[in-house]
Design goal:
The protein is an all-alpha fold and about 190 residues long. Helix content is about 85%, strand content about 0%.
């Protein structure tokens, strides 16, 4: 019975993420993004920091990507990436402390039940998978994908909270810089 309870909770967590993606799609198709862009233009350098905070959540990733692309065009890519990454660290830290144990532990228990015992040892051995999970989480955090996914993966790798902040900053900086470069090349 405990397994089915874990499966149920994992499905609820994944359902929340899916609902967030659907809501973000709705945001894109309405004038919310335009309003966000207009508001951030008038705020100046703080706009990059605020957009960076929104870059982290499944509910606000898509509008934040659009805002960061606009801001990078107006203020410059490097300053937008630095300030946006600093804001992302704030958002990611909140998510990290909420999500790191909750979802990652459920995923480990779920995966362990699906695999034969000898495969469980090699798949879940920290020395084998820690760096692979770490790299995968970094790619997810750098991408426009919601950071909740990357943070859950970091929870699986059992990253030290003191290492999390520079990792979050670095990967968000790279992601925002790439967004700025793509936006600059498109214009």
């Amino acid at each position: 019975m405990a397994g089915s309870k874990t499966d149920y909770r994992l499905l609820i967590d994944l359902g929340i993420i899916a609902a967030g993606v659907a809501l973000a799609a709705l945001f894109i198709n309405t004038d919310i993004v335009e309003t966000l862009l207009h508001t951030t233009r008038s705020v100046g350098l703080i706009s990059s920091f605020v957009a960076g905070i929104f870059f982290t959540s499944v509910l606000t990733t898509a509008p934040a990507v659009a805002a960061l692309a606009e801001i990078a065009e107006a203020q410059g890519m490097i300053i937008t990436a630095v300030l946006g990454a600093a804001g992302s660290v704030v958002g990611d830290s909140i998510l990290f402390y909420i999500m790191r144990d909750r979802i990652s532990d459920r995923l480990i228990r779920f995966a362990a039940r699906l695999l034969p015992k000898r495969r469980r040892v090699s798949l879940l051995d920290p020395t084998v998978t820690r760096w692979l999970l770490f790299a995968l989480a970094g790619v997810v955090i750098a991408s426009p994908l919601p950071d909740e996914i990357g943070i859950s993966i970091l929870g699986l790798s059992k990253v030290n909270p003191t290492l999390f902040i520079p990792v979050s900053f670095f990967f968000n900086f790279v992601g925002i810089l790439v967004i700025g470069l793509i936006a600059g090349a498109a214009l």
